Each structure stands twice: as structure tokens, then as C-alpha cells.
Amino acid sequence: MIQQIYPVPEHNYAFELNKDFHFSAAHYIADENAGNCQYTHGHTYFANITIAGDTLDSTGFLIDFKTIKDLIHKRFDHTTLNEDSAFSSNQGAYFPTTEVVAKTVYEIIQTRLDTLENKPVCLQIFLRETPSSYCIYRPKGGSER
Ligand SMILES: Nc1nc2c(c(=O)[nH]1)N=C([C@H](O)[C@H](O)COP(=O)(O)OP(=O)(O)OP(=O)(O)O)CN2
Ligand SMILES: [Zn+2]
Where in this chain does the entry annotate a coiled-coil region (predicted)? Predict the structure, then answer.
């Protein structure tokens, strides 16, 4: 597991949880402006997920670490991202770029968090695509849900 330092979002929640994991996936950015990235290639993505809240569940969890990983890893590991229903190969807004994948990871996780009685929130997705390239996605007004 890569150990790295990433920026932390400001908030006033009592608990902040962070989960790190990898997933391997292929993708392509179907636009000639994407250079070599328009051709299918793969990455070992590294994700750091930041979740916060004030209330724990009956197990003493904000949310089980395993749930966070499973939501993303089970869906995307060893897949071609373009084939997932979250993405598209002909609508630029849904190409599986680092930015769009980070936002999609946020949406998948927050949708699950919204079902929990203790109402944790996802504050930040750190998604590294290559050793030299990463994106941070933070929902607008993230610490004010
Ligand atoms: N804003 C974005 N730019 C690029 C994305 C992206 O998702 N968002 N993606 C790519 C490619 O898919 C590629 O996987 C990553 O490109 P890059 O960082 O240039 O990869 P390198 O490892 O070759 O980088 P070097 O630092 O030059 O070795 C391209 N752009
Ligand atoms: Zn790529």
C-alpha cells in the first residue's frame, strides 16, 4: 500500500474516518485531444476516502471500513471503466477521466451514507491515477450537509 500525505478538508465533525485502497482498471478517453489516452490502457488507481460525522452506529462505527472499500473495489476492480453505467465513451462529461471517476466514487459512497441512520458524510475523494497525477474531489458545501 502506498503511504502518502494528502490534503485534509476542514470540518467541525467529531469523527473523521479515512480509508485507503487500490483498484486496477482499464479506460480510454475517446477524444483525439486526449493523445495516447484515447487508446485503451490501464492504471492501478489509489483512492483515499474521507468520511466524517458526529454520531456512531450501534457497532461504534461511523461506517465499516470494509463497506467503503467494497462499494468501489467490487464494482470497478479489473473492469474497463468505459463499460460501467456511470461512464460513457461518447459524452465528454462522462468520460472516465480522473476527475469524473473521483466524482463518481463520491456519488456512490454518499448515496450509501444517505441510507444510514447516523448520517455520516463523505468530505473528500483523493484519487491517484498515476505516480504523477491525482485529483481531489470535494462536494460543494461538503461539511455543511
Ligand atoms: N485532467 C486530466 N488530464 C489527463 C487525464 C485525466 O484523467 N484528467 N488522463 C490522462 C491519461 O489517461 C493518463 O492516464 C494520465 O496521464 P499522465 O499523467 O500524463 O501520465 P504519465 O504517467 O505519462 O505522466 P508523466 O508525469 O508525464 O510521466 C491524461 N491527461
Ligand atoms: Zn489513463
Answer: none
Kindly give the distance from the C-alpha atom of residue 132 to the centroid of ligand 1, in angstroms, as a whole number. 8
The domain of 64 spans 15-144
Q: Per the structure, how many domains does the chain have?
A: 1
Q: What is the pTM of this model?
A: 0.94
* Span from the CA of 120 to the centroid of ligand 2 (angstroms): 31
The pLDDT tens digits for 6-60 are 788 899 999 999 999 999 999 999 999 999 999 999 999 999 999 999 999 999 9
Q: Is 2 among the domain residues?
A: no
Residue with the smallest CA separation from ligand 1 atom 24 is: 132
Q: What is the CB < 6 Å shell around ligand 1?
A: 29, 37, 97-99, 129-130, 132-133
pLDDT at 143: 60
The enclosing domain of 27 has a CATH number of: 3.30.479.10
